[in-house]
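seq as requested:
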Amino acid sequence: MACAANSVGRPKRPDLPASGQKFAFGHGASHRCVVPVDQILVDRVVASTGLTHGEAARLVQDVVAFHAEPLEGYVRRRHHELKTHGAKNPEIFARIAAELGERVVAAPELTERQLRRIVYG
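struct tokens:
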């Protein structure tokens, strides 16, 4: 399941779900995502950082939600961000193509034409 995290990536309620429970993250009103709690990873973060269990669970869920952003959403978002900062399309598409290969779960290689189609339809 793919989703995008909002800039904070936190659930609307301040209390955290019980271990193994799922809850929704949202990016805007139209996009919802369910992120499962990975108890083993949460325990490892607690042991290595000194965070509380609740803080570690929130951190893990934020990171998973961030990396679960759909390919098309990532390309459109990055294109908009880079365009806003004055970059030109050839530079933007080369940069996005390079970034996609560096993600935790690398996306397939896309040509400039494929990237343009994602952005412009």
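The two ends are 23 Å apart (CA to CA).
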